[in-house]
Every structure is written in C-alpha cells, then in structure tokens.
Amino acid sequence: MTSKISFFKLMKVEGRYKSWLPALICLVLFISLPVACLLKLDGMMSSVKEGYLELETVRKSFQAFVGFGNLGRIIVTAGCAVVSAFACFSYMNSKQKVDFYHSLPVNRQKLFLAEFLNGLFFYVVPCFVCTVICIIIGAINSLLTGQIFLIAMEAFLMQVLYYLVLYLTGILAAVLTGKIIVGILAAATFMCYGPMVVFLIVGLAEMSFHTLMSVGSEVTYDIMSYLSPVFLCLITEAKLAGGETSFFCIGWIILMIALLFLLCFWLYCRRASEAAGHSIAFPKIEKPLKFLLVVPCSLTAGLLLKMMSYGSIWFFVGIIFGGIILSALIEFIYHLDIREIFAHKILMAAAVLTSLLVACGFYFDWIGYDSYIPDEDEIVSMSVYNSSINGNFYYGDSYDIGSGNTDIRALQSLSVTNFEPVYELAQEGIARLKESGSAYYEGDTRFVSVRYELAGEKEVYRNYYVSLEALNHTMDELFKDVSFRSKFFPLLGRDNSEVRYLNLSSVTGYTDLELTSKQKEELLRTYKEELEGVTFETLRTEPALGSIGFTYESRGTQLQMAAAETYYGGISQFSENYPVYESFTGTVALLKEYGYPVDEQLNASDIESVTISCYDPEFIRSDGMRAECVLTSEDEISQIAPLLRDNMSQFPVASNSFANMDIMVYMKNGNTLSLGIKSEDVPEFVIKALEKEFR
C-alpha cells in the first residue's frame, strides 16, 4: 500500500527532523560570504579614504570575491555537500531507522527524491541569500556594476553545480555503505581515486623512463578533472577565473551530475534493508573494490619506499608488503573481525601479483619507451631545446601570463622540416642511454628536450643527454637556415610597436635608454638586421660587449587582460635580454651616437679595488671556503680592467668560455659591479695570488 501524501509535505516533514542542517549551513555561509566580504571591504575602503588605494582596485578585489577564483567558497561548498549527503541519508546506517522508513506507505523513489531535494535546498537558498547580501554590501560601497552583478550570479550558479556534483558523490558513498565511517572513507576515495592513479602513473614513469618529458601540468590536470569531481570543480573554477569560458568542463560537470543522480537513484531503489550496519551494502562489489584499491595503493607504497631508500629492491619489497597489509586492512574494514584479515587469499595474491607485473613493466621498460624513436618518414618536423641555449626567451603567444612550460612553448615554436641534424642528435641520446644504462650529466654532456611532430598532428616529446660537441654541431647546422634564426630569436618576429622600454647593460653598468620614437625605430631595425645574420658560433664563442633589454606589453583579449589584473596579480609586462657583439657595428655605432657607448671600458683610475673569488674545485677548501684575492695596486687594476666583461650580458651558452670566478669591482664613487672574465684572459698574477691565498 502506498500513501498519497503530498510530495512537498513529505519534504517538509523530512526537513523538520533535520532543522539543524540548514541552520549550520546558513551560519557557515553567512560567515564565509557576507561577514568575510564586509571585513575585507571595510579595511580596503579605509585605505581608499586615506589615499593608499584607488576605488577601482577595491572594485576588482570585490569582483574577485563574489566572482570566480574564490577558493574559500569552493571549500565551504564541498564541506556543505558532504555533510548534507550523509545527514540526509544517515538513516540508512541504522537498522531501526531503515525498518521505520521502509515501513512507511511511501515508495522509495519518492523518499529518495524528498531527501535529495531537501539537501539541495538546504544549500541553494542560503547561498543565494548570502550572495545577494554581498552584492548589496558592494552597492553600498559604490562598487557594484552591471558586469559584476552578472559575474556574481554566474558564480552562484557554478557553485550550485559544484555542490550538486559533490553532493551526489557523497550520496553515492552513503548508498554503497552501511556505516558512517566507511561511507566517509568511500566518499574520499571516489573524490581522490582518479587523481591518485594519475599521479601514480606519472610517478612510476618518472622513476623508470629516463627520456620522459612532462608535456605540462595542464594535460595531467585535465585528465584528473575527468576522473574526480573535486578536481573538476577546482579546474573549472580556475579556468573561469583566468578568463576562459570552459563550456567543455561545465558540460562535463552537468553530465557527471546526471550520471551520478541516475546511479544513486538506481542503487537506492535496489539497496536491501538488511544492508544497514554492514560496511558494504552490496556484497558483490567487495572483491572488485578490494582489487581496485590494493593494486594502486601497493604500488604507491613501493614508490614511496624507493624514494626514501633510493634502492630498487625496496621498491618491490614495498609493493609486496604494502599489498599484504592493505589487503588485510580492507578485509578488517569489511568484517570488523581480526580473524578475517587474511580471508580471500587468492584475491590478495592476484592483487599483489598484478602490482608486481605493472611495476616490472615500468621498471624494466617492457614497452620500449626510452628506445623509441619515430621513423624518419613518419616525422613532419622536429625541434630541440636546451635551457642554456634558448631558455631565456619567451616563445609562442606573448600573453601566457602566469604560465610555465617554457620548454614546451619553445619546442612548439622552433619546429624545422629539415630535421636531419636534430634526428641525429636524438639518435646519439638513445645510443648514450643504451651504452650507460642510465641518463646522467657528466663532463661535456648536455641535457636537451626534443619534440617530434608526426602525421595527424601527433606530438612526441623526449629528453636526452648528448655530448656538447654534438649539440653545438646540431645548432650550427640549424643556424644556417635564416628562417630558423627568425624563430630562434622571438624579437625578430615581433612588431617594433610592441616594445615599450629599452635598457642597456654593459661593463660600466645598467641604464635605461631614453630615445625618441625615430631613434628607437632606427635602433630596433639595425639591431634586428644584425641579429638575423648572427651564427651560433658567435653566440657560443664571442664575448658580448653588453646586452639590450626589451620590455613588452603582454597581449591577450580584453577578458584575459582583465583576468590578469584580478587573478594573476596584475602582471602585464615581460622582458628579454639580447647580446650586443663587437661585430654588430651598426648597433654599436648607433648606441654611441645616442650617448650610450656599449663598447666603453672601465677606467682603471675610477676603481678602488677588485675582489676575485674562484670556485674552481682546485681552489675550494675542505670546509667549502673559496680562494679569494683582492687587487688594490694601480698596476694590477690597470691590467685587468680592460679584460673584464659584463656577466649578465653574455649569451648563456657562452658562459662555458668564462672563468669560474666571481669578480666584484668596487668603484671610487661607491658603486659595485659584478663582472666576469674569459678563461684565456685571466692574468698570471691573479692565478698566483689565488694559489698563495689558497695555501
């Protein structure tokens, strides 16, 4: 017999028994939204009145608080969702309550919907009210605009979606379990299992594959977002805060909500009344669940043990013992009986054996990851990256505010179709790895990253250790192509109008270049022409007279730039330094004409003293102290002054030709210069002074 009681009356009756829950949610939301907003704005508005802040700055801060990127609000939403899920469905953990509810003349479908909607309204109504109060607070302080109002409403709707997906995850855990503690553990597992497996795979790959190159955290996070409701919410919020309209993530959240709702509804209707009090409500899922938990957890235990011990044997020991202990722990949670911890021994052995097979597959590289290199006829283009060669430039879109992965952007920007030199370099890297059995840096070995672009827009990334000679040969060959040089130096591909400021660094110090528009245009044109003709041999062997710093405005859409102001701290500029060589005669002449001689040498009569500290291994004492000498005589200073170079102006790859010395020049006017000197130019009296001091 089924009662015809009104659905809304049923909700009202059920809500009355849980009146503490909406009261708690109201209190938490009121403190975290209106109260926090009021406190935040009160301090900032006081600074506005005192003239320390502009009203527009406060408005942007208010927009960030009521809009996207408020991490505190997501944490509160997640907490409310989990508490609501277990509070609304807590009766399923008690046999007496289950018998009572199931004896009522109300079908399960209606009962589930009543509990579900109660938990939803307990959050949505107070969240909406608190959001409106925050908007009113902003309006009272003259901060509210139409755009901010719309953003606040959009952020509220996203919070409802976040709440729903986390709320349903908690309900799923409550339906599948019969004990509150086990339910909480299940909810945590559902929210973290996917990311944990992804991190585990990344950790195993980084431990095992010497040529592995991470293609960026964005890919890892995107994968995790598909597997975890928590990460999905966090990544969606981050993208929205960064100015992206992530329809895919929002659609994925809605799809996940629909699937979770149907699954919870279906399981709830089939859940046996006798399941209350049991750890797992559906006995058929106990074994698969145990297997899916033991395998990744035992691998994680082995990985952690290897990280602590640095011994490979402990990796496998950790897997075996971790698998046995975790299997026993799960059986104890299932049965709460110490005598049952080694039940299902075959399943335990299968889980441990599977873990060992996975571990061996990674550790011994059964898939041939390190030895893989695409056939030449499969490759469309290739590129190579080394931090000492092209690690100081901004490649790709000038915007990229707050993002990392400089190597990825460089590799994507430096592709060449005549890739034979790069292919040979990759082959050497693989041959070195096979010969040594491990990848490491020694002597004249250099670390490079290589990108293969294959047909069908497929990309393959690898890291290799190669000889310095081979790397130099590869770059020499690539630099013969003028189109590669144009890609290698991003300045050559940028419009002169993008350059906001110029500065000059040389042996005499640092100065801003104050030029007219015509002078600036002429200098940029001349420098670009000479830079385009430079060879890699010049970069690595010729000491630079100085360097020119170029400061650009970051580019992006209006939405991206607005997001940069609020989300990335207002970063809107970036700088690059390019060397000026003696062979750049046109640039040197123009700088001298404009009153900024880059080839000017230090005047020995202006120097008070020179302190030289050597960090060659032969000049480092057992206590770690370096050999150091101080030059004060006019004769010694006059000999070394013309040989000094500006360290900061040298192209990074050219630093190999410089002596391992820190040279501090103290000027009579009180200035201090940090300079360097080429190894072949170090005077004999400096070597003798260091040897004497070292003894």
From TrEMBL:
Taxonomic source organism: Murimonas intestini
Name this protein carries in UniProt: DUF6449 domain-containing protein
Transmembrane segments: 20-41, 61-91, 112-140, 146-168, 180-205, 245-268, 289-307, 313-334, 346-364
Pfam families: DUF6449 (PF20047)
Keyword Membrane applies: yes
Domain DUF6449: 452-595
UniProt keyword annotations, A-Z: Membrane, Transmembrane, Transmembrane helix
Domain of life where this protein originates: Bacteria
Annotated InterPro entries: DUF6449
